[in-house]
């Protein structure tokens, strides 16, 4: 099985590549342009595997994508490359429009022309998995879950760009017959998570005795999924999902942000009892503009149709994650020093 992965040097992409190369034994081509979020250090464990190749290229570059498809000849495309951070999209949406919308178009159209020329057997087996987010559905109130049929209602430039790309992916199936499958997943966490996102930022700030900035009152709810559970779900959907269908992915682990931060503090208190309660560092800061109140996923279609189930609970996953950061300073220290040191992103004058 030959799988072309885009964005494989990112957080979820690298977990997926490690799973495909190490556990599935697929031939993998990782196409990634290496933005600030792309990091080949996350792929150290597979970089010299005979079934792994890396191509540094931008998905918006049609000529490079055509060459990559023609020479690698994938059976499956798993498209994860994106600008992924909501706060950065608030400060400047241009890269989000370019990569998430124009880049997805470039990849879909390249895939369509490649797929058109395949023989009948390879044509019917081919899949294009477009990896998306639950944020396309907007915000929930206190009750209810996002289902695959929930209408789209995105709030941020990031989620609007992902919504646009989902519509393109489904349109390429309906219009051209390309065997596209779309996945919409909730918040991931785990090892190799870039420290701009809530969980790794809180872990590293707490370790360094810095304030833990909680947006607003901290009552916003996210539905957390351990990244390795997501990687398994993505392979399941790409290999067995039905063309033209959407699958929601989530771990049934809803938590308020403030409770997540308290849990991280409690784990660190257990390791460093002499540093005082880490929760004293919690600081309420100006809310994120357009901040969605609650996300929660109904993953029953994926569970019943394809037999996937999350293996980690939030309690087991967060414990593993905090310990991973304690043991892997070699990975995060250069990012904190040279790429992003944790300053507030996503606020602008007038808010
Ligand atoms: P990430 O920001 O960690 O990684 C994105 C990767 O894409 C990086 O390696 C980057 O270099 C690469 N990339 C960006 N622009 C590119 C371009 N033009 N050409 C080629 N490569 C490019 O993102 P992530 O958190 O791993 O998310 C991966 C995908 O999953 C995204 O599509 C995101 O929308 C989706 N998603 C993320 C989450 C989450 O909680 N992180 C949840 C649901 C869905
Ligand atoms: O739901 C899936 C989405 O999850 C993905 O599509 C996105 O790519 C991914 O970044 C993530 O988006 P969020 O905006 O939910 O993640 P983030 O880690 O930025 O924020 C999680 C929550 O924590 C959110 O309610 C905002 C809050 N927050 C975040 C940061 C960085 C804080 O309170 N303080 C912070 O410093």
UniProtKB/TrEMBL annotation:
Residues 4-321 form the NAD(P)-binding domain. It catalyses: dTDP-alpha-D-glucose = dTDP-4-dehydro-6-deoxy-alpha-D-glucose + H2O. Its cofactor is NAD(+). PANTHER family: DTDP-D-GLUCOSE 4,6-DEHYDRATASE-RELATED. SUPFAM superfamilies: NAD(P)-binding Rossmann-fold domains. It comes from Rhizobium ruizarguesonis. This is dTDP-glucose 4,6-dehydratase. Belongs to the NAD(P)-dependent epimerase/dehydratase family. dTDP-glucose dehydratase subfamily. Keywords: Lyase, NAD. CDD domains: dTDP_GD_SDR_e. Gene3D superfamilies: NAD(P)-binding Rossmann-like Domain, UDP-galactose 4-epimerase, domain 1. NCBIfam families: dTDP_gluc_dehyt. InterPro entries: dTDP_Gluc_deHydtase, NAD(P)-bd_dom, NAD(P)-bd_dom_sf. One of its GO terms (biological process) is nucleotide-sugar metabolic process. Its EC number is 4.2.1.46. One of its GO terms (molecular function) is dTDP-glucose 4,6-dehydratase activity. Pfam families: GDP_Man_Dehyd (PF16363). It is an enzyme of class 4 (lyase).
